[in-house]
Amino acid sequence: MDTRNEMLKLIRERRGGFSLQQPFYIDPDFYRLDLELIWYRDWLFVGHDCEIAKPGSFFTVQVGDYPVVIVRGRDGRIRALHNSCRHRGSRVCNTERGTAARLVCPYHQWTYDLDGSLVFARQMADGFCKEDFGLKAIACESVAGYIFICLADEPADFAPFRTLMEPFFAPHNLADAKVAYETTIVEKGNWKLVWENNRECYHCAANHPELCKTFPEAPTITGVPSVDSDPEMLAHWAHCEAAGLPSRFSIDGRGQYRATRAPLLRDAVSYTMTGKPAVRKNLADAVSADRIGTLMLYHYPTTWNHVLIDHATTFRVLPISATETAVTTKWLVHKDAVEGVDYAIDELTHVWTMTNDEDRRIVEENAFGIKSPAYEPGPYSEMHEGGVIQFVDWYAGFMEPRLAEGEKPTLRNVA
After folding, report:
1. Per-residue pLDDT tens for 4-45?
2. Residue 225 has pLDDT above 70, yes or no
3. Which pLDDT value is given to residue 408?
4. What's residue 358's pLDDT?
5. Which of 47-56, 210-219, 292-301, 351-360 has the lowest mean pLDDT?
6. 260 shares a domain with 203
7. Is residue 16, in this structure, part of any structural domain at all?
8. Are both 286 and 317 inside the same structural domain?
9. In this structure, are 196 and 300 located in the same domain?
10. What CATH number does the domain containing 73 carry?
11. What is the pLDDT of residues 227-248, one digit of tens each?
């Protein structure tokens, strides 16, 4: 049986409410199918508008085998381009970020304008047409300060996500914020284990002392539909909506993305050890209401987010291999906030720096145990792990029809 049919068989036979079979977490061939059928076909969060605020500013990202450069053009437009020279394939931009009048391949100095068009290729034969060799474009969308790309030749419609997400995030003006701090850690576990760990707080009390000072452990906070029956959440939504902030739980029909606001514990307003603001200046001038808690956004497979009154913390997930995942965290503050005056980096980042490292250890121990020949899928807690069940159901539901596209017909014996 080939890998595609093997994965399809296991998905169709999987037991609802249980973790996945071992190959989904460790098998390199299963990982390649994840890349092909999800990561190379769906919209992925890569960064923020404010990271490339000026024309010529760029950053790079690696998605599986694809090196990508995100650049702001002279026309102000944000574009995504395949970061592979049309001469002999070398990476054109080989730094994490930078600013350039034009993009110059370091190998033979082929030079591209900020829109990807080729403007200079020295000593080529007569008849060479520069117009035929621009950097290949990638679908790119910007919404409320977030940049998404899609590597597919025919990207899915981005409009439904924009419609859901933009009203929640527009008031916070993240497009005009700035990144105060950024860190990337590599977790030695499959990308799905990173997400499964994120989607529940069943583990929080025993593992996250810093986060638990401000973040509730209630299962409804993780953003599953039963949240509609939580009186505390209903009261919080009413409070925020009275201040003009969309808040009520909203999810797309397939379960890939959702947004909602949630309260923090007691009088906390920010993710700090005291619950007090980490930044003196509010993130957005237009948002000043008290006790708005955290605005959460989840978009599988690449991002979860927390937007508070004083700052935002955004997370990007990118797979490296079947058993390694890069998690990038960025802390965004008001563009005019001054480090050392309005905020201290240690205070701003402490809670999530500690939480990320704690989660890294959890994921790695989980991954280590799954490698055992004795591993078999175990039951999730319906009370505490509804978010994990939802994620795994989304994954299986997304993969099954895509795997079936290449399903081999069953051979029948003919008498």
Report:
1. 999 999 999 999 999 999 999 999 999 999 999 999 999 999
2. no
3. 55
4. 96
5. 210-219
6. yes
7. no
8. yes
9. yes
10. 2.102.10.10
11. 667 888 999 999 999 999 999 9
Note the pLDDT of residue 229.
74
In a domain, 84, yes or no: yes
Give yes or no for residue 197 having a pLDDT over 60. yes
The answer to the question of residue 6 being in a domain is no
Q: Could you tell me how far CA 359 lies from the centroid of its own chain?
A: 16
| CA proximity to 245, closest of 294, 280, 282 | 294
Which of 220-224, 273-277, 343-347 is least confident?
220-224
What is the model's pLDDT at position 411? 40
Query: pLDDT tens, 372-398?
Result: 999 999 999 998 999 999 999 999 999
Task: Give me the domain span that covers residue 251.
Answer: 159-370
- Distance CA(189)–CA(363), nearest Å, equals 6
Specify whether 168 is located in the same domain as 102: no
> How far apart (Å, rounded) are the C-alpha atoms in residues 324 and 31?
11
User: What gap in Å lies between CA 42 and CA 398, rounded to an integer?
Assistant: 10
14 lies in a domain?
Answer: no
Domain tally for the chain? 2
One DSSP character per residue, 368-380 reads: HHHTSTT----BP
Beta-bridge mates of residue 79: 71
Token pair belonging to 151 = 């590597």
What is the average pLDDT across 273-301? 96
